[in-house]
Every structure is written in C-alpha cells, then in structure tokens.
Amino acid sequence: MTAVPTYAADPEARFENYAEFYRKSAYARFDQEHREGGSLSLKMFRAQQNAIDLIDAAVPDYVFFWDLHGPCSGAIDLGDGRLDFKRIAPNLMHIVPPMTEAHFRIDEPNEFFCASIPARKIDLLLESYELDGSSFGHHYPVRGNPLDPEPAAPSVALMRKLWHALATPKASSLIIDGLVMQLVGTAAGTRDTPNIATDDTRIVRAIEYIEAHYGDSLSVVELAAIAALSPSQFAALFRQAVGEPVWTYVQRRRCERACEKVMTTSTPLAAIAEDCGFHDHSHMTRGFKRQFGVTPSEMRNGR
Description:
five-stranded mixed beta sheet, six-stranded antiparallel beta sheet, 11 helices
C-alpha cells in the first residue's frame, strides 16, 4: 500500500513567505540556517533534511531549490504533475511558482539551498523586460555539475554567491539585488537586454549591433552608419529614443555585462575588461565606480 503524504503544516494556515513556513512547519526539526537581505525581500536558507514525504503550503513567493549532494530517489510535484525518479538528475534547479502546494518525497537525507522572492517583486522585474511568470520552468535545467566548487551553471553559481553575499557585512543591497536580478533573468531564459520602447528601426538596429558587439571597439560614427544616419542625427535620435546619450548607453551595457562575468565566473578581471570592450582593467574600474559605486574587485570579494 502506497504511503499517503502528510501536510507539513495545517492546510488552513497562511504564511507570508517560504522561509517562515519552513521554520514553523514539520521542517522545523531539521538543521537550518537562514539569511536575508537586499531591497527585493530575498530570503535564503540552507537546510539538512532526513527522508521526507510532505506537502508544502502555498506561499506568495517564487521558491528556488538546488540540492547540494546530487542524486537520490523520490518524487516531486511542483504543480505541474508528479515526477518520479530513481536517481534525480543533479543538474536541475527546481522552481515552485507562487501560491502552489508542492509535494516532496525524498528517500534519503539531503542538503539544499533555498531562495524565495515575493512574486510581486519578480513580476515587476519580468514586466520591465516584457516577460511573464510563464517563462519560469518548474524543473529548470542548468548546465554543469552542482558538486563542482566552481560550477559552470550560472544559476548554481548565483545561488552560491547570493548565500555568501548575505553573510558579508560589506555586501551592499545593490550587489544582492543585482545577483537576484541575474538569477531571475537566468531562470526566465532571457538575456539581460533592456527593453527600449521605440519603433524607430534605425535605432533598434543600432542597439542590436551594440548588444552583439559590446566587446568590440565601437564608435558613434560606426553606429550611425549601421543606422544609416549622420552622426549628429543618430546621436539626437538615439538620446530621444533611449533616454541617454549613445556613449553612456554603450559604457553602461559594458559595465552590466562585465558585472555578470565578475559575479558568476572566476575569470581574471583584466580578461573580463578586454572581453567587454574596456581599454584595460583601470578603465573598467572607473566605469564600475560610476555605474555601481564599487570597484570590480570589491564586487567580487563582496559575494
């Protein structure tokens, strides 16, 4: 006879977030460490569990899980149907949508990271990029081995960096929020390309060229030629459409792309500067100070 899973907490109980639920439910008996920070109401915890067969309460968060110790057997239903497994793939990031009861049956002791973010916060981020919550997968595939100390999977690396940043006194809300935004962007399967509201195909063509060639040596004259405009016409139309001068946009996008590499890879900073179109490491450092208020080294060490 198949065992019937039990609710981890009173089905009538309501919880403000997943971290609160975890602390006040049947999970309370397990070893756990909680951290929180940033302006996006991020809450994270790391927990060690014994075998379980429990139904989690619906909470108003997107909940991200990443198992630390690889394969084990069990079953998961994250609102999109039951998934049975003998050896769960170690390259899955599980994402539970908001207001969804989730059933977890894990047959062996396990340890995992959890990050929860209010749906209203994520929805605002997605809206700014003209995306919606349906772009999140319930079982989101990530590349790389989660047991690798420097995994190739961006989302796994981001979970690690978020956890460490939340324990670092000098890590600013800006750094934490930036990592959260990268995690959301990775999970949504989108590149961090800003939404520019313009119907001018000439400006759109130039922006697409910048996004594809931000690491190259660009010039306003070159971009104006891509847009089939004179440099003065292009500069005026670009500022009108985007809200900032073309060269300010280029440098900002270089900084944002470099920021992603600084926070999610161990690539030397000088190599990142070269890859992202800066003259040298010092040039990138000056750009970071203007854009983020910290140097690349401070950002990397603050994770």
